[in-house]
Amino acid sequence: MAEASNALTPRDEEVDPQFEPVIKLTEQIETKTHEEDEEVLFKMRAKLFRFDATSTEWKERGTGDVRLLAHKETKKVRLVMRRDKTLKVCANHHVSQEIKLQPNIGSDRSWVWKVAADYAENPPTPETLAIRFANAENAGLFKDAFEEGQRINLGLSNGLSPDEAIKAAKAQSKKPEPVKAENETDAPAEAEKKEEGAEEKKDDEPKQDTEAKEDA
């Protein structure tokens, strides 16, 4: 019985505190968005909508910073917008000459445009988009930057070097100073003042009439 008891008694062994992990972690892979190869030309907070042709309704696509990015070498300009928090892309397309920014019905702080291929989804899809800013001034700044980006891309497609395309685009962006007539004053007309005072705030959501649903 003593021998059996000794056989069941565990032997004194050295304790090794090191354990081999059951699951080995793989090396962290760096995710590239290609935005690291670009510089920001314009950045502003906005809300984006897309027009759903099936339901004939505007649907919110996301709120976040809309940016115009230029490639550091080629200088080609594209529009990229990511949603807040999730950073998921909700707009991604080149700023081509074919795109026409149109004012949204009933709003002075939003724009509507059509794009043949938006790369926010895979595969890319044609979209009718609308973007809304905090005020009319911000909307105007976006339009100026967007159209300058279009001119840069047009110059590049016409064979200009990146520097030449940028120089030509900026030259066209300069607006001549208004020439004031001798009797002209700085004060706005009283009728305009009354009109602005009487104007009521309208609904912010993009609006379209029946005809605009096809063209806006």
Can you put this structure into words, describing what you see?
By secondary structure, this protein is α+β, with helices and mostly antiparallel strands. It contains 5 helices and 7 strands, in the order αβββββββαααα. It has a 7-stranded antiparallel sheet with strand order 4-3-2-1-7-6-5, covered by helices on one side. It is globular. One of its GO terms (biological process) is nucleocytoplasmic transport. This is RanBP1 domain-containing protein. InterPro entries: PH-like_dom_sf, Ran_bind_dom, RanBP1-like, RanBP1_RanBD.
Would you tell me the overall average pLDDT? Answer: 81
Rg value: 29 Å
Order of helices and strands: HEEEEEEEHHHH
> Largest sheet, order of strands side by side?
4-3-2-1-7-6-5
What is the topological layout?
Elements: H1 2-8, E1 38-52, E2 57-71, E3 77-82, E4 89-94, E5 102-103, E6 110-118, E7 125-132, H2 136-157, H3 162-173, H4 190-198, H5 212-215
Antiparallel strand pairs: 1-2, 1-7, 2-3, 3-4, 5-6, 6-7
From the structure above, extract its key features.
RanBP1_RanBD, seven-stranded antiparallel beta sheet, Ran_bind_dom, GTPase activator activity, disordered C terminus, alpha+beta, RanBP1-like, 216 residues, 25% helix, RanBP1 domain-containing protein
Provide a quick synopsis of the model.
The protein is of the alpha+beta class.
